Amino acid sequence: MIEKIFIFIIFLGPLVFFHELGHFLFARLFGVRVQVFSIGFGPKLFKFKRGDTEYALSLIPLGGYVKMFGDDPLAGDSIPEEERRYSFTHKSKWARFWIVFGGPFANFIMAYVIFFALLFVGEKLPELKIGVVAENSKLQSLGVYTGDVLRRVNGDDISNPSDIVLKDGGVKTLTVERFGAEKTLTINMEGEKFFEEMIKSPPFLRRPILTTPEGDVFAISNSSEAVDWNESLDEIATLRGTITFYLYKMDKKANLANIKVREIRPFEKKVTLTINSSNDLLKLLRKEKLYPKDMVVKSISMKSPAEKAGIVGGNIILGLNGKDIYSFESLRSTLQLIKEKDVKISLLADGVIKNVTLIPDVKPQGKKKVKLIGVYSSGIFQGLKLVDTPSKGFVGSFLGSFGRTWETITKTVGSFKKLIVGDVSLKQIGGPLAIGKVASDSFNTSLSYFFQLMALISVNLGVINLFPIPVLDGGHILFIILEVINRGPVSRRKMEIAQQFGLSLLLMLMIGAIFNDVVRFF
């Protein structure tokens, strides 16, 4: 817990520091007297004064502030004439704009610098791997297979999604690695459109683990020597022809998420199967009383449709409304397509097949409604393989960082637009707990991931602060624009109302984000 708090502070501290530094430097540039520069809110843990400015480190590390002389526009008349040259309110509109915009601008510069450093030094990133390719999907029509690792686009090495999205001329050819061999495919698509198809198949691939009704656990491989733990069950299912598979019996108490070859015994038995289509392998294994681990029910939500129907942990799900199901993801997607109110689930309980009928809960998710039955899977997924990427060199890093920064800004703006119009639920907003979790997870994955996330959140912080909401930087910029249009300052009454509205809205958003965190993690 202490480690996660420490990582959170390391993550958030630079974001806050550079944002406030942007305001501070532009204020000093235009001759505004800065009274306080604080990282954090609340009681001051540490402070010192140099010149006119008090520098402080405060207790609550969720933000910071720069207190400038004369920053209250409602009290501008009370400032003595001889002091007005140091006052924020009495500076030109152009100067005030840059002082206010300086914070978000610094966040964008920080993101650029991080991207430049990552590209110049080289990154350790998850390899670009395709997840389960759906039947009759666009990817399938292009010849892309489940588990393909993306190596080159148009003959150029790639290591990051932006190498695809920003590719000049789009994706003409794609070289993939499949079962250790490379294959070049003809694609002819815009980079962004191909990437949109890619993310429909996220790399959540099942470990090659099977279970029996008695609870015995096996690893499956097409090698008689050892299990290749880099190959997922979903990749193995793409093999075609008559193939001999070897089953390695495993200790039930083994850590199935991180098991190593040395923990495996010699293969227990072998089966020779003829596979012609995507579900043939799992269909034939079912006849051998072998089931994918993710089809085993791990637990049930209290008072859920599944609990009411008598489904319990250890049951193995077989089908839905008469259709055989071979993955938990297929269970989830098929459930959404069923039009009938009642749903019939076929399952294996204590070695006996039985059918139960239930009525799924229907809950809103953004603009959509999703059906839920309250079942949790025992599935174990492959970990992401990290690979070292070479340096792009100074020029490549300098130019590539502009592309990455701009792409991040546009995608962030697009995400907020979806939130505003209701395409994305407000329940997706995360607060400090969510940020802390992803910061900790990324730190434990790789430093490259950690700094990439820092750049992303830096851009988010910059964009959020540009929202035209009073009390945010964007609200101050809006007042400056109105001042230009009206050829005079906004009236005291209107400004007071706007500030009260802005503060109330900001508090509501903060409370909503914290509430989402509590619901999500507790």
Automatic annotation (TrEMBL):
CDD domains: S2P-M50_PDZ_RseP-like (cd06163). It holds the Pfam family Peptidase_M50. GO terms for molecular function: metalloendopeptidase activity. GO terms for biological process: proteolysis. Its main location: membrane. Its cofactor is Zn(2+). SUPFAM superfamilies: PDZ domain-like. Residues 8-509 form the Peptidase M50 domain. The keyword Transport does not apply. It is a multi-pass membrane protein. Keywords: Hydrolase, Membrane, Metalloprotease, Protease, Transmembrane, Transmembrane helix, Zinc. It is found in: Membrane. GO terms for cellular component: membrane. InterPro entries: PDZ_sf (IPR036034), Pept_M50_Zn (IPR004387), Peptidase_M50 (IPR008915). The chain crosses the membrane at residues 6-26, 94-121, 453-485, 497-515. PANTHER family: MEMBRANE METALLOPROTEASE ARASP2, CHLOROPLASTIC-RELATED, REGULATOR OF SIGMA-E PROTEASE RSEP. This is Peptidase M50 domain-containing protein. It comes from Halobacteriovorax marinus. Belongs to the peptidase M50B family.
